[in-house]
Amino acid sequence: MRVAAITGLAVEARIARGAGLVAVATGGDAARTEAAAERLLAEGASALLSFGIAGGLDPGLAPGSLLLPRLVRSEDGATFPVDAAWRARVLTALRASGLVPEEGDLLGAARIVAASSAKAELHRRTGAIAVDLESHVAAQAAAQAGRPFLALRAVADPAWCVLPAAAVLPLDDEGRPRLGRVLLCVLRDPRQIPALLRVARDTARALTALRRAAAALR
Fold this sequence. Notes:
Elements: E1 3-7, H1 10-18, E2 22-25, H2 30-42, E3 47-56, E4 66-67, E5 71-74, E6 79-81, H3 84-96, E7 106-108, H4 116-126, E8 130-132, H5 135-145, E9 149-155, H6 179-188, H7 193-216
Parallel strand pairs: 1-2, 1-3, 3-9, 5-7, 7-8
Antiparallel strand pairs: 3-8, 4-9, 5-6
């Protein structure tokens, strides 16, 4: 099976490539994600993997919690089951490496969910345990093409975390932070620096979990 990974961040794509996968970072933009998924499938990918960090909705999930959902939901109510056989193989490999992923539903959103109150409302309304920007788009593309789909994510910002303004600025087309805009945002409001440092720490934990998961799948 020739697996192609869809990610939001450039660093996530590098981790996926380190595991031998074709990977494209789309910066969390839905149109770019859709175009990338369709292009990868047209170029011969036999399956799509949504790979990267996610925001926690379930307050029981700490930064670095690994996610291997059975189902991806979208905000409009659509549901996309992952490929059961593929998921079972990945789950076996992860457990063999001492990793125990969470198996609750993953929600695909149109934009970053920054407020803890908004995360709580999404958890209550949808039952999803985490949220990202790419999984529902990739899942829909795979479903339309009749190809297997899977999501493997790790929690960065937990449910109780309020993301500062500098952490939700749009990425560039290749999934990299626009450092000039981030710096300007911080200069305008230096009070967000402690929260930004916390986000960086929690994201590092999530990326570490993704590296361990990727290594288990080689």
